[in-house]
Here is the input.
Amino acid sequence: MTPRERWKAVLDRRTPDRIPCDFWSTPEVLSRLLRELRCPTEDDLWRALGIDRAHDVAPRFVGPEERKDNLWMIEVKEQVYGDGLGSYAELSHAPFAEFSEPEELVDFPWPDPDWFDFSRVADDLERVREWPIRGGGFEPFNLYCAMRGLELAFMDLATESPFLEAALERIFDFHYEFNRRLFEAAGWGAIDFTYVAEDFGGQNALLMSPDKIERFFIPRMKAMIDLAHAHGVRAFHHDDGAIRRIIPRMIEIGIDILNPIQWRCAGMEREGLKRDFGEQVVFHGGVDNQQSLPFGSPKDVRMEVLENIRILGAGGGYIVAPCHNIQPVSPTENILALYEAVRAASGG
Here is the structure.
C-alpha cells in the first residue's frame, strides 16, 4: 500500500497492510534528521523511516505582495532558546490590540479569497498522490488570540464581547469561502482531510467553559465540518490538552479524526478514550512529547508506541504520531525508536 492508501484504509475502517504513522516536528528537528540520515529531500526521509507523512495542497497567492507572508498583519519576533538549540515566533504586535468596538473592524484590511489562484490545485494533487493529502483549515480562536493579544482575547471571551463575535464572523467568512473554493477545485474526495482545530484544553482542564465553546465556536466549526463532508473531505480535529469533557460534543458535530491524544493530561487516559469514542473517531498522535520523546530512553519510546498500538489501535482506528511537534531537545535515537517500533509492530 502507498502511504495514502494506508490512511484511507484506517479512515474507512478497513485493515491496512500495516498501521500508518505521521511525523510532526520543529524545523530544527527536521533539518537535523535530513542531515544525519543523509536524505536529500523530505520525501526521501519519509520513505527511509517508513513514515506516511501527510502532504499539503494549497492555491497560489496572487494578492498584494506586502501581504504574501503576513496575510493577517500579525507581527512576530524570533525568540532563540537553549543557547541556539531552537527558536520560535513570539507575538510582537497584534493588529486588534487597540480596537474596542465592532465598527472598527469594517475598515480593517481583511484578506480576500480572491487573492488566491485555485486553478492549478488539481495538477498539484497529481504530484503528491502517493501521500495522504491535507488541504485548508480553520482554527479561529488561535488566530484571534494572535490578532488581539492573548490577555485581551480571553477577556473578550469572558465578557462575551460583541467585538469578539464580530471578529470571529469575519474570520469564519474568509476561511469558509477559501476552503469552499479549494475543495471544489480539487474535486470530490481528492483532499483526504482538513483541519478544523482549536486549543480548548490545558494540562488539567479546559481553558474555557463548555458554554463558551458552544456559543462562540461550535456553530462555525460545525458549518466548516459540514462543508468538508459535502466535498468528501474528513475533518481532522486538533485540540491540545485535557479536553475529554467536550469530545462527545465534537463527535456530535462531525469530527472524523481526533488529535493529539495527550494521554498524560487529566482525563485523557487511553483506555477510556478508546472504550468511549473508539468506534466514532480515528485517533491520531499519542506518542508523548512532554516526557517520553525528550527525556525517555529509546526503549521507553518503543514500549510506549507498542502500548499505544495495543490500546488505541485495537480493532483499527489509529494513526501513530507524536503528540505535537517533536522538539530539538528530543534525541535522534528516540525519534528513530518511534518509527522502528511501528515497523516492528507490523512485522517489518
Observations:
- The two ends are 14 Å apart (CA to CA).
- The domain at 3-345 is CATH 3.20.20.210 (TIM Barrel).
